[in-house]
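Entry 14. Structure prediction run on the chain below.
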Amino acid sequence: MLPVDNTALMEVFELKKNQLGSSSPPRRMYQRIPAQFCSRLKDIGFQREYAPPSAPKYGEGIYFSGSVRGAVDLWREQSHQDLYQYYVKAKVLTGKSTPGKRDLIMPPPVRSTRSLRQFIGGNRYLCDF
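Output returned:
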């Protein structure tokens, strides 16, 4: 497994980590991407267009799985479309979360503040907006 070395992305990651003020460490999660997006991932990071799941049951965000097996299951229907399949391990920050719904295009607002929830989750998957 080769690391993605992008200083700008790492700076944004650290800024977001400080903004969330999360005391929990980043989670190790996985995503399957087609070969044509590997170089773009290195340059601009994760985008929802790279790996939309077959059935986005938590909304229109960027999906990650908590395990490689979960990533295989989440993107099973697309696996026949590509000769090579790339599974990427990522550090993912998690903030306030709520159960997701299929028709979400943005995270729902947090009741006590004017901010939006950042992450929508299920038992095995996470959808980041």
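Residues 7-20 form the longest helix (14 residues).
Filed with the rest of this week's runs.
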